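S-acyltransferase structure dump, as promised
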Amino acid sequence: FSEFLLQGRFIFGPDVRSLFLTIFLILAPVLVFCIFVARHLMNDFPDHWGISVMVVAVVFTVYDLTLLLLTSGRDPGIVPRNMHPPEPESLDGNNDTGNGQTPQQLRLPRTKDVYVNGVVVKVKYCDTCMLYRPPRCSHCSICNNCVERFDHHCPWVGQCIGLRNYRFFYMFVFSTTLLCLYVFGFCWVYIIKIRDAEGSSIWRAMLKTPASMVLIIYCFICVWFVGGLSVFHFYLMSTNQTTYENFRYRYDRRANPYNVGVVNNFLEIFCTAVPASKNNFRARVPVEQGLQQSRPPTRGFMSPNMGKPVGDLELGRKPVSWDEPRSGADIRDLEVGGMLDEKEGRITHASPDLSREALPVELMEGRAGMH
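structure tokens r here:
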């Protein structure tokens, strides 16, 4: 489930608290750099060029944090859930059950075949969202949502990386790499200037500025992570793969139906408009709709796994039964406080909506006028 901010303008993953750690790991070394390194370099360059060292560091940090917010605070491409399973497709193109099969005997197929650039791709049925996932879509076990062009769930940004925020994720990782190299380089510049000014060895100059030494070690360690991640995702973009597809399908051993050439792959990611969200997170949900989600489907069709425990291989969670309540408002939590009055034969002390939801259908039909 997701966390919302500013009435749905920002949507974060359930582990959004890790975002504050990421912000701290970026801001803290930059502050140390500005106070103990850049401030001393302001007068060491001619024509006031030393001021640009601090200005670039501050602007680069603001740019980096903005990309972090764009990655973490937007809908990654969540596919809206269905309120009931889709109707199974019969062989003759209709959905009537007059050919010897009862509704209870009709089951939804577990997978479907779709064509992508002339290549057959299997799409899976999601038991949680009650839909057939679009190609390249996968269900995130942390966010509990199906995400289009699912890449991975990043704990550092507290959000899934998918169709609508992948470009911002890569720009954030790459800009963080450049920021590490920038701080790393100018720390060495400051150490060299101290050595030249005092005529001492490089080791004595290092002892004069311990903050520079800490920043050099910190940036050296970080650049291996963010730099390696930048190179890896550069390879994925050049071949039009996702992290999930790279580890699961191994397109180096089979044809990749999404690869349209290196140039077109990069143009698809960086030069196309970001698709509009399929969800209106600022809309108000009617109360009746929330209660109807607890009702079983009116049709008799069954999930491909109805009646037996099912588990999604891509979820990595404990298998659940299809007939377990799946909405946030569990029917067991709807406790009716009303009692049947024997003298008057009507329900008292009960909410009309909840009493309708809890009573059997036969009783409700007999007391429609009363309700």
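The first strand starts at residue 3 and ends at 5.
lmk if u need the other ones
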